[in-house]
């Protein structure tokens, strides 16, 4: 089964992202706007409980962080993807590193660039036009993120939350 780990921002930020995604993101219907912390990976379903135990420990050892979105950008020429750029910070970087080490370690295809995708698989002309307009817009959004989610992919390609993990010591 294919799993992934992501953060879902507030409804306010998701609404902003979706205003673009519904036009420019081919995966709009497959997963809500999110920040990927660990790229999709294959794992046998029987090992899910071990994974959940590991993720609980990572969450407990991590702290909430500020998600700051401050501009629009593109991964062109590597891919025709447009995204909302997320400001890196120590807490976010640390969480990403913890989720990509130990039993979950695998060679990363790309450096970690925190972002929320708003358009992908666009043709070059459309990409140029849209990113040209977005670079003239300003976005300055901040919110506190206090959880991340383990997702799994259904046969139709849709992603669903398996479990959500609160960051920090949970005394409940």
From TrEMBL:
The UniProt record lists the keyword Ubl conjugation: no
Segments carrying motif HXTX 2: 115-118
Record-listed E.C. numbers: 3.1.-.-
One Pfam short name: 2_5_RNA_ligase2
Keywords, alphabetical: Hydrolase
Keyword set includes Ubl conjugation: no
NCBIfam families (UniProt xref): PRK13679.1
Family: Belongs to the 2H phosphoesterase superfamily. YjcG family.
Protein name as annotated: Putative phosphoesterase CR194_09075
Organism in which the protein naturally occurs: Salipaludibacillus keqinensis
